[in-house]
Amino acid sequence: MPEQTSLMSLKCLVLDDSVIYAEAIKQMLASEPGIEIINSHTSFGEGVRAAKKHKPDIVLLAGDTPGVSSIVESLDSSVPEIPIIVLFSSEEPDLARECILAGAQLCLYSLDDRNELVGSIRRLVARERRRRTQIVAQATGDQPRLARVLTFHSAKGGSGTTTMVVNTAISLAQLTKKRVVIVDAALQSADVGVLLDLDHPTNIADLTPHMKELDEDLLSEIMATHSSGVKVLLAPAQIERSELITEEQFLRIIGVLRKAADYVLIDTPHILDAVSMAALDTCDQIVVVSTPEVAALRNTARFLQLTSRLGYPQEKIFLLINRAGSKGAVNLDDIKKHIKYEIGATIPSGGKKMISATNTGVPVTMEKGKSSMAKAFITLSTKLSEGELESRRKRTAKIISWIRIGRKQEKPNPAVAQNT
Q1: Are both 56 and 183 inside the same structural domain?
Q2: Which of 48-57, 73-82, 326-335 is predicted with the least confidence, judged by mean pLDDT?
Q3: Which has the closest alpha carbon to 160: 402, 387, 326, 32?
Q4: Which positions fall inside the Response regulatory domain (predicted)?
Q5: 299: domain range?
């Protein structure tokens, strides 16, 4: 059996004026190891005072509390570093939207699914802890060069997500001459190896017994290397072995890969699971793949709404339209109008050329003569690498602002500036 990593401990503040409701949450989470529950009510600003006093890792707030969006806004203003989940007993989309705009990270509509609640709590806390770690590292100048992580996801099967991943990875390697890694997180389909014609004896499941000693050397031993130079962490060949990989283990693997590569591209299944949700949370950019068909666009719009409810900033989303311009396709203007998102890039329909590439295991970006598809992937890769440059510019601007703050102190002291 693989060795399981210990779950992180955390403190959860439950805010509700109904003792019965708070007790129900407490019972639901009682058997979950490492979660400490604190109850408080919300009237007369008590919720904010409780958050300041107990310094929880996360706040759970009852959605039927009077003035719930105002309470969220007060919490977000007073303790912005603490994630907030609002729990509704029934679907309240308008009120949920108000809560998200007020500062909540997530709204859940049912208390019946314990796994969903626990998973959401742990994801949000882990994300906030990573954010704090990064801020401290940036402020102290102790920030190592980390890989840019791109998670590819489609809300509908058959949209060509894996094809987008492998060709973008190869194009990025060709364009930047940097270290590129593909992680096949579509654990049950395992299509990346097929499209790259890779027959390799080890895969991501072989890492699970070695989480404590996991490092760049071990990852390098487990990964396959494609002829393009792209390294690939394959999904298990046996479907049952996909059950071995936990969310925590996956995040640990990506954390090590950030130090071992310059770009990490993650392929995910169209049906979200704990691992793919972790991939969406931890990445720098989500490349949302859709095809120009009504059914695919409808599912894409629903997924984009989900990203908003999860609190992902809009700039984290990059919309990619595959098979653009194919016969009977919805035109791009109508897509933008329907989805209400800018289209980041398009890939033309490949037809027989794409079928041949899939069957032979030779991606179109490996062809000698650059087809229109290969050129489109170069354009896509250029835009995604420009996204990295923009992120660097923003980080540099933040560091400069910290330096300026330090200079304004009465006694200029770099140590003080680093701790502001």
Answers
A1: no
A2: 326-335
A3: 326
A4: 11-125
A5: 148-386
